[in-house]
């Protein structure tokens, strides 16, 4: 459930060196995060992956193993044991933080044995085009989970449960193989002709056994963990009808709202909106187009038109279903989707997602704690911006996105929050100022920059306007003294 002025926190980054102690760490941090205004936390994938204790979580092996069984070289996952995971969830919820689980249904990795089957190669640049004749391949598609010994589920995966794979052990060849009598799912992204296949052994959601097992596992997982919501990985590669059906099934069976947000990685707002329609607006989506607007603006040497920073974004077109973010584990340096927002632009980007009324913002672990792997320090003023959202970002909003370099917006505040209201002004290039209306109730009041980027004092005139300055390549958030 999204709360008023709620904030999601992505509680991990890719290179996190947590030594299987992350669940304990997050449990200890619960009160501090809640006091800053964090109302929901997105935890990393909790199940055993191909890399065992070194697996970030997206190379899924056994979704019933939450750090309980000796599989893939360890009992614990990268983040800890099953008991520590469940205890962390309890502590987070006791602190008033909703817990969202990261759900990876698209593929499986690390099979327990090979199978021999016929398959056809497909082109990487167009998955719809087959190459050559059908051939016999040896593929890693048999998952028996011997370390778990049928606890929780006796379901075993074999090649019939998958549509494709990318490695033939017989020839040691890496290629895209579509398995015998299989077809790619149709309700997926159309990049590369058909983007059903992403990696590993690709689950076949045309197979009723797969669908039934995913439903069974989902109910087991939600019942066991008592999570409040779901972050759905790689939805552009998963049949939209299945995704809708699966989420609705879990909501009905668990009698929980289960806020759900999908990762549909596309900068094209048309793709994002099309997926929302295909899933009957069952889930929210991350606002990837907004992230790329931030990326372009921050790498344009002041030549990006800041008046258009919100154009062609989900938060502008459908704010109720938009989860806004600045960066995440995929966009951080060194990752496949690397599109890191540089430090100088972070305050601007976070001011937009945290202080405006539209959208459900998500704060990235790497911005909140830093990324030791790349010597990236904690983002300046991230705590201040979170507190501003909690205490000040209320009331009627007025937009001033009317200049190619200097833009801003204000919130008038409301009666429920003492001294609430603020004025945000941002520049991607020049020093300057912007005349903006904050409300007649502030007439004669003095405003200061809570980010401490400016030392001025702005006095509001009798009509409720102030001239709010900003440094070039910076943001200032002005609040009543």
Question: Keywords, please?
Answer:
3 domains; alpha/beta; TIM Barrel; eight-stranded parallel β-barrel; 24 strands; Immunoglobulin-like; Elongation Factor Tu (Ef-tu), domain 3; six-stranded antiparallel β-sheet; 25% strand; 481 residues; single chain
Short description:
Helices cover about 25% and strands about 25% of the residues.
What would you say this structure looks like, in words?
The chain has ten helices and 24 strands. It is an alpha/beta fold. The protein folds into three domains: 8-105 and 208-391, Alpha-Beta Barrel (TIM Barrel), CATH 3.20.20; 113-203, Elongation Factor Tu (Ef-tu), domain 3; 397-480, Immunoglobulin-like (Sandwich). The strands form five sheets. An eight-stranded parallel β-barrel has the order 1-2-5-12-13-14-15-16. A six-stranded antiparallel beta sheet has the order 6-11-9-10-7-8, with no helix packed on it. Strand 13, helix 5 (269-278) and strand 14 (284-286) form a beta-alpha-beta unit. The radius of gyration is 24 Å and the shape is elongated. The two termini are 34 Å apart.
Largest sheet, in brief, is: 8 strands, parallel, barrel
CATH topology of the largest domain: TIM Barrel
Distance between the termini: 34 Å
Helix fraction, binned, reads 10-25%
- The CATH architecture of the largest domain comes to Alpha-Beta Barrel
Number of strands: 24
- Given this structure, which CATH class of the largest domain is correct? Alpha Beta
Class per helix and strand makeup: alpha/beta
CATH superfamily of the largest domain: Glycosidases
Compute the gyration radius: what is it? 24 Å
Number of domains: 3
**Please, how many helices?**
10
- Averaged pLDDT: 97
Beta-strand residue fraction: 15-25%
Spans of at least 5 consecutive residues whose pLDDT stays below 50 are none
């Amino acid at each position: 459930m999204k709360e008023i002025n709620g904030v999601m926190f992505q509680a991990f980054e890719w290179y996190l060196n947590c030594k299987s102690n992350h669940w304990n760490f997050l449990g200890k941090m619960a009160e501090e995060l809640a006091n800053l205004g964090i109302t929901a936390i997105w935890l990393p994938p909790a199940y055993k992956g191909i890399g065992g204790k070194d697996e970030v979580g997206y190379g899924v092996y056994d979704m019933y193993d939450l750090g309980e069984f000796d599989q893939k070289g360890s009992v614990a996952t990268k983040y800890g044991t099953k008991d520590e995971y469940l205890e962390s969830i309890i502590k987070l919820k006791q602190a008033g933080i909703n817990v969202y689980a990261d759900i990876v249904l698209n593929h499986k990795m690390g099979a327990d044995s090979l199978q021999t089957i016929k398959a056809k190669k497909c082109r990487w640049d167009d998955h719809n085009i087959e190459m050559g004749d059908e051939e016999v391949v040896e593929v890693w598609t048999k998952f028996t989970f011997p370390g778990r010994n049928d606890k929780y589920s006796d379901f075993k995966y074999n090649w019939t449960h998958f549509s494709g794979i990318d490695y033939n052990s017989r020839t040691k060849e890496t290629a895209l193989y579509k398995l015998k009598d299989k077809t790619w799912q149709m309700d997926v992204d159309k990049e590369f002709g058909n983007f059903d296949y992403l990696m590993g052994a690709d689950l076949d959601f045309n197979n009723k056994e797969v669908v039934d097992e995913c439903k069974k596992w989902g109910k087991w997982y939600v019942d066991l963990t008592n999570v409040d919501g779901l972050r759905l990985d790689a939805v552009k590669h998963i049949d939209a009808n299945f995704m809708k059906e699966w989420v609705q099934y879990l909501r009905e069976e668990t009698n929980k709202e289960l806020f759900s947000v999908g990762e549909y990685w596309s900068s094209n707002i048309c793709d994002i909106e099309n997926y929302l329609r295909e899933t009957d607006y069952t889930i929210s989506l991350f606002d990837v187009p907004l992230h790329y607007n931030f990326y372009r603006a921050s790498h344009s040497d002041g030549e990006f038109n800041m008046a258009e920073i919100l154009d062609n974004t989900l938060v502008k077109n459908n704010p109720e279903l938009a989860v806004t973010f600045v960066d995440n584990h995929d966009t951080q340096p060194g990752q496949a989707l690397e599109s890191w927002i540089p430090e100088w632009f972070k305050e601007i980007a976070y001011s937009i997602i945290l202080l405006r009324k539209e959208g459900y913002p998500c704060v990235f672990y790497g911005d909140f704690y830093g990324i030791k792997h790349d010597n990236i320090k904690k983002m300046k003023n991230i705590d201040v911006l979170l507190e501003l959202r909690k205490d000040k970002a209320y009331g009627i909003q007025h937009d001033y996105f009317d200049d190619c370099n200097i833009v801003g917006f204000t919130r008038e505040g409301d009666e429920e929050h003492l001294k609430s209201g603020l004025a945000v002004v941002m520049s991607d290039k020049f020093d300057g100022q912007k005349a903006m209306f904050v409300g007649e109730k502030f007439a004669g009041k003095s405003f200061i920059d809570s980010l401490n980027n400016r030392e001025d004092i702005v006095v509001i005139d009798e009509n409720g306007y102030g001239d709010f300055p900003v440094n070039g390549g910076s943001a200032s958030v002005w609040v009543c003294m």
